[in-house]
Amino acid sequence: MTYVVALDVGGTSMKGGLVTRGGEVTVLAGRPTGREHGPDAVVEAVRAYVGEIADLGRSRYGVELAGVGLAVPGIVTASTAVYSANIGWRDVPARLGHDVRTGGLAESVFGAGRDVADFLFLPIGTGIAGAVVLRGEPYGGARGWGGEIGHAPVWPAGEKCACGQIGCLETYASASAVARRFTERSGATVTAKEVVERAVAGDPVAADVFGEAIEALAIALASYVLVLDPALIVIGGGLAEAGAALFEPLRERLAGRLAFREPPPVRPAALGPRAGMLGAALLGWQAAGDDDAGTDWSLDVLRGGSVS
Ligand SMILES: [Zn+2]
């Protein structure tokens, strides 16, 4: 049985596992990236973690790993290719991808987007990221910024965003924005999940804040739909856990902003926080020369055992 090492490298922590060609997943406990000690420390932490996972694979399957896939934050540029080179597995093929697009790849191959070629994957958490999937492939655009719908302006005279622009979608509709905007109006410090619960229970301030988040999403998604005509919109991240409280009014408001055409279906993501790591496994298999890996994996891939 051959396997790849898959790693989802976040800002402060990373999670990884080994994934066989048949889609059997073993997930290891996460590790800190050591970012506070500088880039060399991160490279060393990644190298050590990959080595540890590879050792586990060797003892379990009796063969060497076939490849390594890494999902990394931020835009994938020449400098991240250098970063990849610094990690330096000379004898093992490795491939690197942008974290959100790598998650979008996993949703495309065996997740919520498996039955369509063109969709938008929109994880909503601390911020709002986006992966545009066209013809089954995540599309990064000319400079790697493709899909950054979180910084699409929705209210030009609105609130200032951390990115420097005014009125970005993310300023109103990320999970942290929902929590922050409720706190600003009510004085109560709660999570986005609690704001949604209060909104559902009839709290008028919570309903206003959450309603504005949904309206902002509908505005940004309407533009997206008109430009790219996706078959589907997939929403992931923490805010997607709001379930019907999010999806029902969002579908309604999106339809309301598309006068002459039907909106595409809006559905929750299938892979949750493992999307990046599972996408990294696909990159590892691609690096090993197997572009068809994952097409026959079922969502049972999620039921892999954990090893600490
Ligand atoms: Zn912004």
Structure explained in plain terms:
The protein has 308 residues and is of the alpha/beta class. It has 2 domains: 137 residues, Nucleotidyltransferase, domain 5; 146 residues, 2-Layer Sandwich (Nucleotidyltransferase, domain 5), CATH 3.30.420. The protein contains 9 helices and 12 strands. The strands form 2 sheets. Strands 1, 2, 3, 4, 5, 6 and 12 form a 7-stranded mixed beta sheet that branches. It has a 5-stranded mixed beta sheet with strand order 9-8-7-10-11, with helices on both faces. A hairpin with a 3-residue loop joins strand 1 and strand 2. The protein is globular. Bound molecules: zinc ion.
Topology:
Blueprint: E1 3-9, E2 13-20, E3 25-28, E4 31-32, H1 39-61, E5 67-72, H2 78-87, E6 94-98, H3 99-110, E7 119-123, E8 131-134, E9 137-139, H4 169-173, H5 175-186, H6 192-200, H7 204-228, E10 232-236, H8 244-256, E11 266-268, H9 275-287, E12 306-307
Helix pairs in contact: 3-9, 5-6, 5-7, 6-7, 7-8
Bound molecules: zinc ion.
CATH level-two architecture of the largest domain:
2-Layer Sandwich
Mean pLDDT: 91
Low-confidence stretches: none
Quote the distance from N terminus to C terminus: 22 Å
Q: How many whole angstroms does the radius of gyration measure?
A: 20 Å
Return the structural class: alpha/beta
Small molecules held by this entry: zinc ion
- At the fourth level of CATH, the homologous superfamily of the largest domain is ATPase, nucleotide binding domain
Proportion of residues in extended strands? 15-25%
- The CATH top-level class label of the largest domain: Alpha Beta
CATH topology of the largest domain: Nucleotidyltransferase, domain 5
Provide the domain count: 2
Please, how many helices? 9
Shape, principal axes of CA atoms: globular
